[in-house]
């Protein structure tokens, strides 16, 4: 809190720099990148201050935030859909960017809009109910190749509040290698048919708080990652948020190259999502000491192109290839979780390794109600991304443990709702797992 107050006071002491005074036009047509950057640079050179985006629609390409400068958006910032408005390198295809800055503030009640739909739509796939993106081909780019809305790299003392981030062509907000980050009262909105528009990617960052926010996207909601060379992900707290996702509402991974530890998620509502809570360990980093508490979960089947199969809780550690390094998952707690889902809980380690890399998993006052309520039905285990087979058709167990060591269920209940389906399986399934204590589970079997 003291760091946050210092951050806010550091930028509030300066003058207000209205981007209109630097030549910006809010007509939705004029490209204002140069004018907005002049305002940011002038405020920085003056020791700090507030750069104001007033009412209007201000089109921009790449802009770079500065230390001790508040970027206050009252109107709308529109991301340019022209590749020439961005640097000639795909790593910098970002609309709002900062690298190595201190005391970075984004505030206001305005909107940052990436204009993904319809500008980046190549075509619509009616079978998967998915919009297929077109991508930029310049500079030998391969992969997703479209701009992100916000990316902060190695920044310290970051405060983001009040804003709406919407319609991003790629990841919506990405915090990479940052320290002391506060995100409060933010909305992230994306078309739920649009891939790769993760709401918040918290990547190798330390001391991050996400509160009182709403996220609705096609891809992941809060996605925690760790990238080699940027250090661990540590001490992330998410509280009082609502998340909807066609992928994972809360997900660790799949990039797990550094350790990820000491995180708390509580008082969260997950609604109408493909997967509720997911730990997707795929690299050499370990995932340890994570607590999920007081969470309501609703998960359902979506078309199978989206990773996930309606699991409320999903823990997997597996390689993408046989030679992938192996981290472990340990000391994960789920406390007071209520789930209404179309699939059960999956906990799975790596069968190709000696020993168990998933261990010490604790469920306390967890209630699972498996029901069928969508128009889709894919009874299976979904291990993506993984070695084949990635999708395993099977009956649905309320809890399924595979290559897991030491899991405890205390004061838990689970049941299949009527009408019973032919693919409903056991209360607890177990494959090559040891020390699975289910004495505290009351189960309603079909």
Question: What can you tell me about this protein's structure?
Answer:
With 446 residues, the protein is mainly beta. It is 5% helix and 50% strand. The chain has two helices and 39 strands. It has a 23-stranded parallel sheet that branches. A hairpin with an 8-residue loop joins strand 32 and strand 33. The longest helix has 13 residues. It is elongated and about 70 Å long. The protein starts with a helix and ends with a strand. The N terminus is likely disordered.
SSE layout and pairings?
Layout (H helix, E strand, L loop, with lengths): L1 H11 L2 E4 L8 E5 L1 H13 L3 E5 L3 E4 L2 E2 L4 E5 L2 E4 L14 E6 L2 E6 L3 E3 L7 E5 L4 E4 L14 E6 L2 E6 L2 E3 L6 E4 L2 E6 L2 E3 L10 E4 L2 E6 L2 E4 L4 E5 L6 E13 L2 E9 L3 E14 L1 E7 L5 E13 L13 E5 L11 E13 L3 E4 L9 E13 L9 E3 L8 E3 L5 E4 L2 E6 L1 E5 L11 E4 L2 E4 L3 E4 L2
Parallel strand pairs: 1-3, 2-4, 3-6, 4-7, 5-8, 6-9, 7-10, 8-13, 9-14, 10-15, 13-16, 14-17, 15-18, 16-19, 17-20, 18-21, 19-22, 20-23, 21-23, 22-24, 23-25, 24-26, 25-27, 26-28, 27-29, 28-30, 29-31, 30-34, 31-35, 31-36, 34-37, 35-38, 36-39
Antiparallel strand pairs: 11-12, 32-33
């Amino acid at each position: 809190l003291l760091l946050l107050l210092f951050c806010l006071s550091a930028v509030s002491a300066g003058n207000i720099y209205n981007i209109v005074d630097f030549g910006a036009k809010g007509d939705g047509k004029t490209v204002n990148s140069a004018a907005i950057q002049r305002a940011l640079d002038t405020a920085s050179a003056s020791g700090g201050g507030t750069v104001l985006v007033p009412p209007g629609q201000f089109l921009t390409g790449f802009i770079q935030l500065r230390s001790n400068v508040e970027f206050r958006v009252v109107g709308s910032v529109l991301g340019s859909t022209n590749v020439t408005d961005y640097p000639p390198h795909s790593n910098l295809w970002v609309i709002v960017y900062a690298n190595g800055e201190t005391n970075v503030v984004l505030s206001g009640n305005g909107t940052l809009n990436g204009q993904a739909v319809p500008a980046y739509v190549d075509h619509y796939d009616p079978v998967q109910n998915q919009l297929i993106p077109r991508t930029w081909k310049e500079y030998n780019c391969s992969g997703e190749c479209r701009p992100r809305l916000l990316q902060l790299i190695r920044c310290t003392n970051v405060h983001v509040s009040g804003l709406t981030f919407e319609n991003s062509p790629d990841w919506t907000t990405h915090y990479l290698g940052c320290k002391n980050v506060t995100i409060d009262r933010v909305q992230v909105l994306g078309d739920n048919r649009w891939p790769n528009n993760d709401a918040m990617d918290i990547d190798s960052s330390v001391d991050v708080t996400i509160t009182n926010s709403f996220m609705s996207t096609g891809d992941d909601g809060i996605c925690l990652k760790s990238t080699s060379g940027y250090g661990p992900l540590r001490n992330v707290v998410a509280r009082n948020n609502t998340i909807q996702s066609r992928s994972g509402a809360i997900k660790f991974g799949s990039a797990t190259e550094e350790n990820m530890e000491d995180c708390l998620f509580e008082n969260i509502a997950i609604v109408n999502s493909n997967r509720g809570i997911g730990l997707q360990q795929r690299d050499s980093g370990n995932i340890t000491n994570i607590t999920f508490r007081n969470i309501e979960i609703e998960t359902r089947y979506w078309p199978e192109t989206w990773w996930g199969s309606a699991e409320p809780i999903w823990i997997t550690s597996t390689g993408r290839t046989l030679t992938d390094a192996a981290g472990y998952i340990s000391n994960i707690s789920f406390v007071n979780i209520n789930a209404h889902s179309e699939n059960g809980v999956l906990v799975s380690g790596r069968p190709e390794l000696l020993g168990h890399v998933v261990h010490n998993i604790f469920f306390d006052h967890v209630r699972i109600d498996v029901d069928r309520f969508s128009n889709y039905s894919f009874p299976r285990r979904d291990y993506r991304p993984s070695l084949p087979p990635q999708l395993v058709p099977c009956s649905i167990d309320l809890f399924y443990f595979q290559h897991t060591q030491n899991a405890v269920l205390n004061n838990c209940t689970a049941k299949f709702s009527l009408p019973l389906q032919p693919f409903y399986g056991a209360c607890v399934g177990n494959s090559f797992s040891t020390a699975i204590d289910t004495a505290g589970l009351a189960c309603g079997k079909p």
